[in-house]
Fold this sequence. Notes:
The structure is a single chain. By secondary structure, this protein is mainly alpha-helical. It is 65% helix and 8% strand. A three-stranded mixed beta sheet has the order 1-3-2. A hairpin with a 7-residue loop joins strand 2 and strand 3 (98-107).
Amino acid sequence: MTSVSPIPTVVPTSVPEFQKATETGDRTLxxxxxxxxxxxxxxxxxxxxxxxQKRLFHILTAFITTFAAISYFAMAMGDGISYSHSxxxxxxxxxxxxxxxxxxxxxxxxxVDWSVTTPLLLMDLAFLAGLSGANILVAVVAxxxxxxxxxxxxxxxxxxxxxxxxxxxxxxxxxxIYQLAVHGRAMAMSKDSKTGTFxxxxxxxxxxxxxxxxxxxxxxxxxxxxxVDAEIICYAVLDVLAKPVFGFWxxxxxxxxxxxxxxxxxxxxxxxxxxxxxxxxxxxxGA
Length: 287
C-alpha cells in the first residue's frame, strides 16, 4: 500500500496597496490654488477701497483664502502629505486568512489650513452677529478640537481609534453649531431685520457646507469607499464654496449694507498713538 504525503499548505502573500492621487487629483489642487490666489487679490483690493476702520471683514476674509492658497500650493507640490496604514483581513474557507496592508495618502496640510481658516471664518460670522467674547472663545476652541481630532482620526492605527476621534470631532462640531445657530442667530436678530436675515442665510449656507465635510471624511479616510482623487475633488468643491464664494457674498453684502458695518478706531486704526501704550478700558480713578 502506497502512502501519500500530505499536500503542503501554501499561504498566499499579498502586495501592499497604495491609494494615492493621480494626475486628476493633482490638477484639481492646482486649479483650487489659482482660485484662492485670485480671490485673495480681489479681497485685498476690496479692503483698500474702504477706510482702515472698516476693513475688519475684508482682512479676515482675505486671510482665509491666503492661508488656503498656501495649503493648496503645498499639496499640489507634493508637500504636506503622509500615508496612513491600515490592515485588512480577508477570511477564507479552505486556506488560512490573509491580510492586506493598505497605505492611503493623507493630506495633513489640509488640516493645518482648516485649523487656521475655520477660526477666521467663525470670527467673520461672530462679528457679523455681534457674539460676545465668551461665545466666540467657546466656538473657536470647539472648532480647533474638531479639526485636531479629525487629523488624529485620519492617522488612527485602528478602526476603533479612527471612529473614536471622529465621534469627538462631531461632538465638537455640535458645539460650534449651537454657538452660531442659537446665540449667533439671537444676537443678529436683535440688531436689525436686515442683519438678522443676512446672518441666517450665510450662516445656514456655512453650516450646510461644514456638515458635508465630515460626511466626505467618513466615506473617504474613514471607510475608504472613494479613491483619493474623488476625495480631493469633494474637498476642493467644498473649500471653494466655503471660502471664496462665502467671502464674496459676505463682502459684497457688507459693503452694500451699512447695518453690517463694523468700525474699529483706537489701536486698530491709529496704533498706540502719542501715549506710547496700549490701554484696555479706563484707568481707575485714584489708583
